[in-house]
Design brief:
This protein is an alpha/beta fold. 43% of the residues lie in helices and 22% in strands. Helix 1 crosses helix 4.
Length: 299
């Protein structure tokens, strides 16, 4: 069974006669008739019955029509993708990123794209799994981690500040900033040790030669912020405000905000590496304006 046999079969099924199918395909009628008989012989089933001048699908033919249409569609798509790959064109971008990055960086960026831009799909992965996901075949990774050494290309997108969230009746509720030397003495709600936000916080605390008094590890940022709103501790995340919790920027001893830097990465040997680089440049422009502005402001 060859792909052209399936195309002939589908054309006859739609047109109803070999004559009409031959005219559509610009193929001689005898050739189509021979290939249909061969297809029926190969499959071991009768695909058509004759009703006057028309050919009507049998029950087996109707089932085969759906299968054949799927095969032909997939084959056509494979051909199109191969042609695009050969030309270095980028029509679809599969991105690996953590849920927070998808929500606050990728989704807002995708909303600015047009129908002529690549179609973007995302796979939610752990923050420390982005690098491996790109090595495994994802087109692009967006991660809030320090670029590891290796063969991937990494580029900075933007930096966002760490925020401490407190309940509305907390003594800090009307403050804009809190230094690390004060923060570490509060009951903290922090991400797990593998989370990029936690790593940045731990590094900043270590540089200041400080230690946490006590903390709870909360893996899901919205829950951490909800607990802070309920007065169960001070949540340290990068998410924008929710649940009525009051945001306060975390600062170091120089009164500078503690920042988390977001990067994008891709394989330089990707078939559309130049197009990916251009796509990332647009993402970086968006991230360093729209995302950064929202992250550095509070309502």
């Amino acid at each position: 069974m060859e792909l052209r046999h399936l195309r002939y079969f589908l054309a006859v099924a739609e047109c109803g006669t070999v004559t009409a199918a031959a005219a559509r395909l610009h193929v001689a009628q005898p050739a189509i008739s021979r290939q249909l008989h061969r297809l029926e012989r190969d499959l071991g089933v009768e695909l058509f019955t004759r009703n006057g001048p028309r050919l009507v699908l049998t029950h087996a033919g109707r089932q085969m029509r759906d299968v054949a249409a799927d095969i032909v569609t997939r084959a056509d798509r494979a051909t199109m993708v191969a042609q695009q790959m050969a030309g270095g064109l980028l029509t679809r971008v599969v991105v690996a990123a953590a849920p927070t990055t998808i929500e606050y960086v990728l989704a807002p960026f995708v909303a600015t794209l047009s129908s002529s831009d690549p179609f973007v799909s995302v796979d939610s992965v752990a923050p420390d799994a982005v690098h491996e996901a790109v090595l495994a075949g994802h087109d692009l990774g967006v991660a809030a981690t320090a670029p590891p050494t290796g063969r991937l290309v990494w580029t900075r997108l933007t930096s966002v500040p760490l925020r401490a969230y407190v309940a509305p009746d907390h003594p800090w509720a009307r403050r804009r900033t809190v230094p690390l030397e004060e923060l570490v003495h509060e009951p903290l709600l922090v991400p797990p040790a593998t989370d990029p936000t936690r790593r940045v916080l731990d590094e900043a605390v270590a540089r200041e030669q400080l230690r946490y008094d006590r903390y709870e590890q909360i893996a899901w940022p919205p829950l951490s912020q909800a607990l802070a709103a309920a007065g169960r501790g001070v949540s340290v995340v990068t998410n924008l405000e929710q649940f009525g919790a009051r945001p306060i920027f975390v600062t170091d001893h120089r009164a500078q905000k503690v920042l988390l830097t977001i990067h994008a990465c891709w394989d330089p040997d990707h078939y559309a590496a130049p197009a990916l680089a251009e796509f990332v440049a647009r993402l970086a422009t968006f991230a360093d304006t729209e995302v950064r502005e929202a992250a550095h402001s509070v309502s």
